[in-house]
């Protein structure tokens, strides 16, 4: 990457990581709800800016949309769990469209089986954890997103694993709703797993799209 690209684009990733880390260490501190609200949305919101700066075309636009919806969901969740969930549902649908537009030409049997396990297993486990049928409906989109990511042509060890980290983060949230008491684990792990997953997805997809359309 050229020095100009480093100056113009890497700071968006750095700012995203700084905002996400700041939120993680300050979320339970009395610095003011507005600042926490902004920090939480900035983590993935700045990934959307990074994707906008570094990609072109329809696929880039869909990626930006998916991150923008996720960033909005992060903040709205603080006000309404249902509204935040609806925004995440929409984000998953956008991501599914992106991954299906970029299916891998050849996939092994094991890869297809894993995608099927994600498609079926994610909503099933989500329902077992939460006991809520609405959560299972939401998780159907979550599982489809993860399965589609695993079957896409984007780097599996970033985009595929990133999507799985997103799933595990949501499972920890759902565990708070049902009979599975995981103690402080959700408080400790939900945000790092979620943000790490989104960061891996962003860099993996952008790297692939950037390699094909480097003009921007």
Automatic annotation (TrEMBL):
Keyword Transmembrane attributed: yes
Alphabetized Pfam families for the sequence: YhhN (PF07947)
Protein's cellular compartments: Membrane
Record bears the keyword Amino-acid biosynthesis: no
Membrane topology: Multi-pass membrane protein
Similarity comment text for this entry: Belongs to the TMEM86 family.
Name of the featured protein: Lysoplasmalogenase
Organism: Erythrobacter rubeus
